[in-house]
């Protein structure tokens, strides 16, 4: 630290186990690498993980695919059990009734605004099964 700002070489450790190792100048990271908790290293130039062509999870890349009929739903296998009526939004569980996000240890994280609510409902894994495909209007 220098003048209350990150300065020099160091490592930031995040609550879920991810880390950023880098070099800072006056509070700005000028060089560094990000590593996810499971060991996956982020590379901004040749990032191919979970792109449009390869949708495998990192644990599938490391450990191989499961037999046909036994899909892996998340990078964490087995996946977290989602509380009834909630969504798994990546850093915790989201209750669309209260619009509250709690972390995986049941500690309040934040209230979702309209944009985050819409994104979670549209894209995140939910606690209930839902039939997809054609739905008649009646």
From TrEMBL:
Pfam families recorded: MORN
Location, primary (coarse class): other
Domain of life: Eukaryota
Keyword Protein biosynthesis assigned: no
Protein name: MORN repeat-containing protein 5
InterPro entries: MORN (IPR003409), Morn5 (IPR042814)
Compartment annotation: Cell projection, Cilium, Flagellum
Naturally occurring in which organism (per UniProt): Polyodon spathula
Keyword terms: Cell projection, Cilium, Flagellum, Repeat
Protein's gene: Morn5_0
